[in-house]
Design a protein that fits this description.
The chain is of the alpha+beta class and about 140 residues long. The chain has helices spanning about 1-10, 20, 55-75, and strands at about 25-30, 35-40, 80-90, 95-105, 110-120, 125-135.
Length: about 140
């Protein structure tokens, strides 16, 4: 898939910030025309909450990464998140996590997205919608 490799190359050029280093991921698939991505995360054991599943705030960090990468896939620009809303449908076990995210609509200023986190092959445990903003310059 040429888009997948192009996305991997674009991400490889980014500075790895301390917050991004907490949520390392691999790009499994990308479709620039459709503005969609599939990422794979491997949360660390210390991401577990008292119930032994992925803590909600850390799951939201992974979701934000996936939605941001989808915004890039759909627009060619990294855009900061201005709003995100999530529904926690089921516990998200510690282990491989699949993130699927896509652009719903990209306007001149705002980009609307949706995404889901799940154990690979399972129904979504967390779904979210988000808005990012395109900045001038």
């Amino acid at each position: 898939m040429p888009d997948t490799q192009a996305l991997r190359e674009a991400i490889a050029k980014l500075e790895v910030t301390p917050s991004l280093s907490l949520t390392p991921f691999a790009v499994e698939a990308a479709d620039f025309a459709g503005g969609s991505v599939r990422l794979l995360f491997e949360p660390r054991p210390d991401f577990a909450n008292r119930f032994g599943v992925t803590q909600g705030g850390l799951a939201m960090a992974m979701m934000d990464v996936a939605l941001s990468i989808a915004a890039y896939a759909g627009t060619g620009a990294f855009t900061p998140t201005v709003e995100i809303k999530a529904s926690f449908l089921a516990p998200l076990p510690i282990g491989p996590i699949q993130a699927d995210a896509r652009v719903l609509r990209a306007g001149r200023t705002l980009v609307f997205l949706e995404g889901a986190l799940s154990t690979p092959g399972e129904a979504p445990a967390i779904t979210a919608t988000a808005t990012t903003i395109r900045r001038a310059g």
